[in-house]
Amino acid sequence: MKFLLVFDFDHTIIDENSDTWIVKCAPERKLPNGLRNSYQPGHWTEYMGRVFVYLGDNGVKEDEMKRTMTTIPFTAGMTDLLGFIGENKELFDCIIVSDSNTVFIDWILKAADFHKVFDEVFTNPAAFSSTGYLTVQHFHAHHCAKCPKNLCKRKVLKEFLDKQLERGVSYTQVVYIGDGGNDLCPVIFLKKNDVAMPRQGYTLEKKISQLAQSLSPVQCSVLVWSSAIDIMSYLKLLIKE
User: Is 99 annotated as a binding residue?
Assistant: First the structure.
């Protein structure tokens, strides 16, 4: 009896988008229009690369970025939920699949002492260069037409489950917790016994209900949450069974 919990990060674990929060470090806490307008759909990672160059050019250092990032609020109830998972690690494997980056997620989880709750974090690799600039790379290459160029979350989930099976680990149920459009691809991949938990009022919930309306609903069960306490209530029921 082991369950796999898959979390998105931005607007799921934290109540903000980590990539847009970093703009608080910029001069006057905003980006120049030219830079802001340079984003092209599906190429967010490249856009963030340019944002990090701008911050570096303006003398924003690692410690200032770290201080800013660790002020991001967690989503309502999330600290209770992560505490509960931490106390029941023998029942839950827990991973993050996120379009943020390794540096931001690491800072935020370690500052709140939640890094031990997660077995693995799959996100865009980031590091500070010798000149003190933050650089970010694509997580992987893939052939999925539905997903942004740098990350297909379904591919990550499938590869993780395959690798676990090779190690002799199979899960009673996969619970996928997310909010965004890029969470739909892995949710469609989930099986009948699995559960998708989209955040209420966010893109993922809307996309799942559009699929149901067009009579091609997802195979898994769907449970909507607005506070992470809703997720915790579900997990408590699971382990009672």
Answer: yes
